[in-house]
Amino acid sequence: MSDLIAYKSNALVEASYKLTLQEQRFLLLCIGRLKSGADAESPKLQKTMTITAAEYFDSFPDMGRKNAEVQLQEAIDRLWDRSIILKDDEKREEFRWIQYRAQYAKGEARAQITFSDAVMPYLTQLQGQFTRVVIKNISRLSRSYSIRIYEL
């Protein structure tokens, strides 16, 4: 079971986006690997993530070991088309989660993505207004909206 903690800005938590359970799990696993603070690598150096089906299963064992590879592939295939919409009284912004098409290394049971430049500040440059998601606390949630409610 993963001891990872994913940090997201509150603006991102409150933003409009639709993700499947698998997509949310994949993103939270990637976000949990990001480091922020004075001793962290530059966000540009952390943008690319590689996740294996074994790591995905270890963090979310309810999917079953046999399904982990399929669900990982489905999650990254769909993420390419997903966007985030941030709204306030003055403006509306829309940007993508990933900027580099998710790659799935068939037979190697691993996937690689690159977060978009627009989303990185909401994941790494957190100054006080953020939400902390403990991966093991959401690992057994079985609906995508359950994770959204947990984040709120």
Automatic annotation (TrEMBL):
One of the record's GO molecular function terms: DNA-directed DNA polymerase activity
Occurrences of domain Initiator Rep protein WH1 (ranges): 7-152
Annotated GO biological process: DNA replication initiation
Domain of life, source organism: Bacteria
Protein family: Belongs to the initiator RepB protein family.
Protein name from the UniProt record: Replication initiation protein
Organism: Bacteroides ovatus
